[in-house]
């Protein structure tokens, strides 16, 4: 089976399994797990932030950030197709009592400075006031587009001028950095916090990191505990996570495989394919007279998995466990399925 549903499906390498076995551990709730401490310090540096916090999932990282940056009852500006808004069970309302105001970030999912200013609500006797702007890079729903640092800077500057902090959902920020040939810390230069996933293209079995300044991370540590995310000898997970940080440049291979897959699929009559910038390939099935679900069922019978991203949109994701030959085979099977 060629599993292109997500870049989360990778199995840990032998080296990662060894890193789990060999990790030096301690009780991380007491701050005594040396492997976690090392991961947090390496990750903070990679993101150009003062400090970092290891969290079990990207979702928890995003939700902690929202909670720390805001006060109960405020509004948060989110992009209308963003993960933090669409795919986290309404956690902004559930955990932090926030009301969302959505901005339409267009084809690339990035709000303009004008949109940020227009969406801002000043607190008064009737209005809750805006407490946070969130951004996403790469933008998942828009097809893994890599947002240029200047666009992030512009939105962040508009927010900062209004006194708003900015959180970046950078689940795949390393993909963006590789695609744009900049460091991750360039992308995060003007945001106040960033979350990124070790368990996506970087290949770790578990884990994400939330980074920001010292004070933010100290508060985030308390909220992680509140949400039940205080873990003990978790170096056994952070060890593979540390190795994952060595895999940033490897993401280029996923991007190349996505380009190959997209080119091959674009040659199939009835499919229209968005040119990938990173490791996500969006395929529209409308001209073939098929829904995404129908195409995916036929693909599955032929040994290829993808995910349904809309009535007529299929997402294929390249990752560490598929190589060039696999994507060529996958494209052949999709053609056959159609
Ligand atoms: C996967 C993802 C998350 C959440 O990560 P989990 O570890 O699955 O909770 C957040 N944001 C984006 C953009 C993602 O793709």
Automatic annotation (TrEMBL):
Residue stretches of biased makeup (Basic and acidic residues): 1-20
Region feature Disordered, mapped onto this chain: 1-30
Single GO MF descriptor: L-allo-threonine aldolase activity
NCBIfam families hit by this protein: GntG_guanitoxin
Keyword terms, alphabetized: Lyase, Pyridoxal phosphate
Entry's family note: Belongs to the threonine aldolase family.
Positions bearing N6-(pyridoxal phosphate)lysine: 200
Species in which this protein is naturally found: Haladaptatus paucihalophilus DX253
Protein name: Threonine aldolase
Gene Ontology cellular component terms for the protein in this record: cytosol
Domain Aromatic amino acid beta-eliminating lyase/threonine aldolase: 3-286
GO BP term, example: L-threonine catabolic process
Cofactor entry: pyridoxal 5'-phosphate
